[in-house]
Design brief:
single chain, about 180 residues, alpha+beta, Lipocalin, 8-stranded antiparallel β-barrel, about 25% helix, about 35% strand, globular
Length: about 180
């Protein structure tokens, strides 16, 4: 066989493999963990990083989420952040289980009287959580929203990179990822 043909064949194979990997990365879909212990998951989480989203456009720092279990198998959600005017904003919502393992939730921040309206609940999927429930990666069925959460305002770089790698494997484009600062106020 001719060396040019061999080289062309090798280049073609490498190109096809690269294209296949790029296509896989573009089509990878987020996958929630099978199950979480919702009692361990409840409590306060600090946002470490997130992909930009409309509802957080005013938030500049100190973003947290607090989850409390309700008697009716729902979860109260209180999201807080410091806004551009240096004031704390807060949104109170409710999360409904969307799978038996409680790793997929539907969340609504609409007033109680309007929660029955279709399309008013957002997806909240736990994509990864460490065994001690200290760090979690949250997204949904699309690659549109992503949050990296921790029980503390900061995490070490190795853990941060590990969770970002999980996000990339699930098809997230992290080019616009925003790290969330936390002040001592």
């Amino acid at each position: 066989m001719n060396i040019k043909v061999l080289c062309s064949s090798a280049v073609l194979s490498i190109s096809l493999a690269a294209l296949s990997m790029a296509t896989f990365a573009d089509t990878a879909k987020p996958t929630a963990v099978d199950k979480i212990d919702i009692k361990q998951y409840a409590g306060k989480w600090y946002e470490i990083a997130h992909l930009p989203m409309y509802f957080q456009r005013q938030c500049v720092s100190d973003t947290t989420a607090k989850y409390s279990l309700n008697a009716n198998n729902t979860i109260q959600v209180i999201n807080s952040c410091r806004n551009k005017s240096d004031q704390m904003d807060q949104s109170v919502g409710i999360a409904y289980p969307d799978n038996a393992g409680m790793s997929k939730l539907k969340v609504s921040f609409m007033p109680k009287a309007l929660r029955w309206i279709p399309f008013t609940k957002g997806d909240y999927w736990v994509l990864r959580v460490d065994p001690d429930y200290k760090v979690a990666l949250v997204g949904g069925p699309s690659n549109k929203y992503l949050w990296l959460l921790s029980r503390t305002p900061t995490i070490d770089e190795a853990t941060y990179q590990s969770y970002l790698e999980t996000a990339k494997q699930q098809g997230y484009d992290l080019s616009e990822l925003i790290k969330t600062p936390h002040t001592s106020q």
